[in-house]
Amino acid sequence: NFLDIGYEDGDTVMLKISFKAVPIARAPGLFIDNMRMDAISDVVNTISTELSVYPNPTVDEINVNYEVLSSSNIKIEVIDLLSNNIISIDKGFMKYGAYSENIKLSELSTGTYFVRVSNGIQQKMIPFSVSK
Asked: Which residues, in sequence order, are bridge partners of residue 61?
């Protein structure tokens, strides 16, 4: 038998299984049979709450510091107050670690914007201001 969970080759699948010891059972070993998973009970955080932007306010560029807690595909976006996507940077598959991205903003006018770091499931956002 094999486990068919409907994912494509190369997809990352994370399973968390907990077992509780029952000392009076006196059973030799651990057996798992007919496992079925219908829903995800917990979502593992893959993007850290540590998201920072500097300088803020800025004139023509920002540095975005973020941390990837679990390997995933990362996208960085600059969004205006009307939720329009102004700049989009697809970083691709990134491994665990701390990262910094410099973003040029010379085309933006004075105003308030947001940086969004996302992995398709989770996102973190932080506001920043452009002063020309």
From this structure: 104
- CA gap 126, 35 in Å, rounded: 41
Tokens of 60: 């023509």
Least confident of 25-39, 64-78, 83-97: 25-39
* Eight-class DSSP state of 96: S
Q: Strands, DSSP E only, in the chain?
A: 52-54, 61-68, 72-80, 85-94, 97-104, 111-118, 123-130
Q: 123 — alpha (psi -120 to 50), left (phi > 0) or beta?
A: beta
Q: What's the whole-model pTM score?
A: 0.65
The CB density around residue 48, as the number of other CB atoms within 10 Å, is 14
**So what's the pLDDT on residue 36?**
57
Q: 102-122: buried (b, 16+ CB within 10 Å) or exposed (e) per residue?
A: ebebeebeeeebbbbbbbeee
Q: How far apart are the first and last CA of the chain?
A: 64
73 Cβ partners below 8 Å, 6+ apart? 90, 91, 92, 93, 94, 119, 120
Mean pLDDT, to the nearest integer, of 81-93? 93
